[in-house]
Amino acid sequence: MDGGPGDAIVSGDLAEAQRAWVVLRGIGPAPHLCRPWNLNGVFTNTGKTPAKNAGWSCVNEFAKNESDFKWWRIPYMNQTLVAPNDQDMSILHLLMAPKITQPLLDTIKTAEVHLFVYGSAVYLDVFGEWHWLTFYQEPEPDGQAWDSCTNGNDTGDVRYPPPPLGGVPNAPNNLSIPFNPTN
Q1: CA 25 – CA 141 distance, rounded (Å)
Q2: Which residues have CB under 8 Å from 167's CB, separation 6+?
Q3: Cβ neighbours around 125 below 10 Å, total
Q4: What kind of fold does domain 5-156 have according to CATH?
Q5: At a CB cut-off of 8 Å and minimum separation 6, what does 177 contact?
Q6: Which end of the chain has less Cβ packing within 10 Å, N or C?
Q7: pLDDT tens for residues 21-75?
Q8: Angular region, 111: left φ>0, alpha ψ -120 to 50, beta rest
Q9: Alpha carbons 171 and 73: distance in angstroms, whole number
Q10: What is the per-residue pLDDT across 90-111, written as a single tens digit (0 to 9) for each?
Q11: pLDDT over 90 for what percent of the chain?
């Protein structure tokens, strides 16, 4: 490489091919009658280099439909380093229900009330660039699998996800800012 304009393209391609890629691997386990339900979100770095300063923000809400809940934002947790394909350090404990009862299981299965899990992650790659992802999911009525909802699942290459609600400041440590990916 001689420092010409073509070198920047090769350098950018190399960074893209080698950078960290943090994804939501999944949410689980499924609820079981008469047992505690410790719902976890698992994030993984599928890239080839570590993700630095990785932080997660996740909320779960029970509601009849999307228009019934608040889309709350919480501070980012677990500012940490995530090695490629290491998910042991990237588990978020989303919900800890003391015991699943038959009425609660029936409510979830009949979709009278939905459980929505949504949030975002931010991380810095080894090339000094920030990236983010947002996620928004709900379980199938049987509780065995999770579906990505139509809105709210996205990625980008700046410090924080874009401001929600048409311009609400995107402060990661503000506990009272609603987060609505549908607007």
Answers
A1: 20
A2: none
A3: 22
A4: Immunoglobulin-like (2.60.40)
A5: 72, 73, 164, 168, 169, 170, 171
A6: N
A7: 988 888 888 888 898 888 888 888 999 999 998 888 888 888 887 777 666 666 6
A8: left
A9: 9
A10: 777 777 777 888 888 888 778 7
A11: 8
CA distance 121 to 135: 9
CB 143 within 8 A of CB 31: yes
Residue type, 76: Y
Can you give the residue ranges of every domain in the chain?
Answer: 5-156
Residue (of 86, 80, 95) closest to 43 by Cα position: 86
Q: Distance between CA 66 and CA 62 in Å, rounded?
A: 10
Q: Which has the closest alpha carbon to 51: 19, 92, 95?
A: 19
* Proportion of the chain above pLDDT 70, given as a percent: 74
Instruction: Provide the token pair at 36.
Output: 């505690």
- The pLDDT of residue 12: 65
Tell me if the bond preceding 162 is cis, omega within 30° of 0: no
State which amino acid sits at residue 27.
I
